[in-house]
Amino acid sequence: FIPLLASLLVEITIRCRKMAPVVGYTNIRGLAQSIRNLLVYKGVQFEDKQYKVGPAPGFEKEGWAQEKFSLGLQFPNLPYYSDDEVNLTQSIAILRHLGRKYDMASKTAQEATQLDLLEQQANDLVWGLVVAAMSPAGSDGRRAHDANLTYVLSRWEEHLKTRKWALGERLTYVDFLLYEGLDWNRVYKPEAFGDHPAVERYMKSFEALPKIAEYHASPKYIKWPILSPHFHWGYKK
């Protein structure tokens, strides 16, 4: 009986491990952080698998080349997300999947249309800074981003004046993307946020969410670096 029980416990443990979701990315904040935040908020126990970025000039991701074609990914890339239902790449596709899985997506056709728009606007915040960070300080690319950031923040300020979250009163997967886009830019140019109280209130509300506040105060959370070491901004202080 005892050997049988021990064998059963081992089998249950193995199955539980197999069912635990995995988020694969490098050891930076980057495009995976919105995914990590959402899973933490929903109380999901997951493996945060981090491939350490190596030194210049190659910046090779330690272990990724050996694993990338053996993970069951249709289009191998980072970040990836695996659970007992899917093996996904593309950060937006992953967030959409998690939104549907955890009831944080649209409930009506009208909400779907609005979330489509808000998702892309939030993603523009992220990628606007990514593109700017490819150029050194003082470059035309940086100046263009800085000028555009003032306008973009004014539009989000107007939108959030009458809404608790991006869609309204209900938190959705888009908020996890939007928070990252806003916070990256706040780290980059904090003075740009001074005249946007609704944006600041929104960010504080997100940071105070159950589990998020605890996670952000823990060593598991990656506040910095935001981007990879080959960027002019986002890695070195």
From TrEMBL:
UniProt EC number: 2.5.1.18
GO BP, one annotated term: glutathione metabolic process
Function: Conjugation of reduced glutathione to a wide number of exogenous and endogenous hydrophobic electrophiles.
Limits of the GST N-terminal domain: 19-106
Coiled coil, from the record: none
One Gene Ontology MF term: glutathione transferase activity
Organism in which the protein naturally occurs: Amblyomma triste (Neotropical tick)
Catalytic activity: RX + glutathione = an S-substituted glutathione + a halide anion + H(+)
Designated name of the protein: glutathione transferase
Signal peptide interval: none
Domain of life: Eukaryota
Transferase is among the record's keywords: yes
Domain GST C-terminal stretches: 108-226
Family statement drawn from the similarity comment of this UniProt entry: Belongs to the GST superfamily. Mu family.
Pfam families, per the entry: GST_C_3 (PF14497), GST_N (PF02798)
Keyword annotations from UniProtKB, A to Z: Transferase
Keyword Ribonucleoprotein: no
Lineage: Eukaryota, Metazoa, Ecdysozoa, Arthropoda, Chelicerata
